[in-house]
Amino acid sequence: MQNNKQVRIWGKSEGITLEQHIKDIYKAFYKLRSKVKDREVRKCIKLAIKLHDLGKALPYFQIIMMRNKEYEPFSVYKNTYIYHSIASLLFINKEKLREILDRKEDLANFVLSAVAYHHWNGSLERDMQATEKYQALLKDINLLEKSLENLKEELGQLFCDEEKSLLEIDYHMLQGLARDLNVSEYAVPPYRMDWIPLRKDISQDMARKWVLISGFLMRCDHYASYCETAEDWNSKSEQERSIELKKVEIDNIKYEDILNQVKRKVQDKAKRAVNLWQEEKIRGRIDKSIILVAPTGSGKTEFAFLWSNGEKLIYTLPIRAIVEQTYERAKDIFGEERVGLLHGDADIYLLGEEQGSAQEYSDAPEQEKLIAQEKLRVYELSKELSPAVIVSTGDQFFPYALRPPGYERIYATLSYSRLVIDEVQAYDPVA
Length: 431
Known about the structure:
Layout: E1 10-12, E2 16-17, H1 18-32, H2 39-51, H3 59-65, H4 84-87, H5 94-100, H6 105-116, H7 122-127, H8 131-139, H9 141-155, H10 171-178, H11 204-228, H12 238-245, H13 255-270, H14 277-282, H15 300-307, E3 312-317, H16 320-334, E4 339-342, H17 346-351, H18 366-383, E5 389-393, H19 407-414, E6 417-421
Parallel strand pairs: 3-5, 3-6, 4-5
Antiparallel strand pairs: 1-2
Helix pairs in contact: 1-11, 2-6, 2-11, 6-11, 8-10, 11-19
């Protein structure tokens, strides 16, 4: 008797199907789509989301990495397993991708690069030129063909008619890799092996598009994966999932509301009505980069809050104690639910130093555990760059100026954010 049971591809070891994982990423990006003004780039990001995890269909990944024991074909031969982001390239019809992108070669290359390198680690680097593995795959081509059938069955509903023919085995690429070619011949990596960014050799406009395509894919993939770690994710309704996924970007309050809150705070402190010098000085300059020099206690922080203009604000300071003070001030202006905290011990601060680390809550009463989880969620969301206002030590962001792997996620976020660098005199120029 023929078995008509569908073989599901898992996207996460928690039993999240690949279809659900891609839907979750797509919903997260739907919240962020307005941050991407370029329609071509937006289209490329959507394609990259659909294509980025195709390589997870390989049996070794499903059976060993995902523990999907019912997966077919059953094959645990490690020599046919390629790191999943690189393996995704083997299931993409690259000529069709160029056709969908109106024959714009650069954009097609950026999508392939985003797919292949959305995770950068040692496993990926080893498989960029792993001739024996590709030769083994070529010999066991039925394994690839069955994986492709599974992909079409799993993801068929996610691809429109124009996109369905994207799912196809690239035999030409596989044969080239089996002849000792490097994956970089088919998908340009963001780095040379000496870690010099390749983007320096293209125009600034095209480099920006490349960074945004990779960065928004990474940002949404990270956030969806974070949501999917919840124990009850599979049991949530579509509406409940959508609510959580929309928190990939928490909206800020409007300028007028920030102004009113700042006025309230200053007036409460002064015990009288006051005119804000910040309001006057910022008029006509709110859309410009500003250097502000003013004495301690004069209200520079409130000026920075106003300058955010209701957009995402990343507020950096050099010292943790001042970061924590500013975090508390920001909550009073923007609302606790909109403000995040980032530094090395932010989780300890949020829990309360007298209460110790999160582990100490393991035997606490249920209510205390829930409170602790809520406090730690502030930290987790901050790591996902979700809050409307993130107060942080500079070390959480400034090293990305050197463009290490994964910097695209930070740059994509900064592309629509306001960045404040406060207390610059406290930084060591040598360090």
